[in-house]
Structure prediction request, 434 residues.
Amino acid sequence: MNSNAFANIPEWKEVFDTLPTIRKFFAGDPHMLGLNSLLENLSIYFDRFMDHVERRDPFVWYNLGFSSELVYAMGDACPLPVELLGAVHSLVGNHRMSLDFIDTAQASGVPADCCSADKLAAGAMHKGVYPAPALAVGVNTPCDAQVMNAQILAELSGAPFFSIDVPYHDDEEAIDHVAAQLKELVEFMEEVLGRSMDLDRLREVCEHSNRMTETLWEWLDWRKLVPLTQSSKVVALTLVLQILFTGTAEGVEIAQSLLREARERSERNERFFEERVRAVWYQDAVWTDMQIYDWFERELGLTVPVDVFGYYAQEGLIDTRNETTMFKGLANKLVRCQPMSRQFRGNIDMYIRDFMNMMEGWNADCCIFAGHVTCKHAWGGIGLFKEALRKADIPLLIFEFDMFDPRTTPWEDIYFHVERFVEEIVAPRKSRGM
Prediction:
């Protein structure tokens, strides 16, 4: 299929037609550097994507627990996370397309109680909207639903498949275990693609990854300041960087734009809303309507300086001295750093400990547990989480919704839950100095 025919597939045409309009809309705010940079570099990715289609370059499919460094290190291979198209439609496209992916997945046999992110991927693969891959990579993070998704990926890709096992523990033995698999993955890619990975190219990719990581750490530090002057909604986008842009100059640019925006707005003491309450949003973002965070800020004075998607643990950078240290550094990222993979593959102690660090570090007043209905790992530990917050005297809101399917809980209901929590519990408590 050539690029012209590919661009006329309705699911892609909608994105290509909509993205320029969305970019033009947000470009009206010259200070919204982070989101503008993300939209610009998404456009660059899609342009290169089409170039890959035209040149018949190899595509590498993978699920969202993986990150893109090793694919970029293979030169002309194009990384393609299989959740991509459905997620982009939820963010900037036609949300009916996302729902069509979800419904297609369920009609093909994916259980209704499976994660909607996995349904986006399965539906897109069933509909055949992605260019055929040269190979596919499946990883069992960040949650058990991804194991099922990896199985679907292996079956529907029709390509040589490599599976990565990330253990439930995060000690040095686990790091070495994953590092050995990443080395095997490179050998597998070299055999399938018929080329060798250049060590200098791998080092360059890892250096880009490190610069992006350090920039995100600095950016998150600026979001600790009170009051928050940068939009709440951009923090969740860290996960997008990790899955699609890590290891690239574009990833560094997006992170630098987020940092510059936060720093400049803080230095100018800009106030677009009056902050009354700060919350750690400790589950899934409302991907179906990110503007809801603007409502929270304007109408309730509620800000979200950090969430579980945005939190990127400071567990070390990739040591680029040699091949062995680079594989170990990449393994360390998958096991100890990657948002969700870090919290959802281990025991509940890590989940609770990270939350407490966010509460203290980002000066939060409360926790909002936006419970994605199919996150069995989170709901399975909710009793222990509630008890930990009760002992720490932290106000907690819990509600159910689906992060990619608004038919489960409409945004009006989400807003109602949050409004009552802020107005009846957190704000009065804060005014009393508690």
Notes: The chain has a mean pLDDT of 91. The two ends are 63 Å apart (CA to CA). The first strand starts at residue 59 and ends at 62.
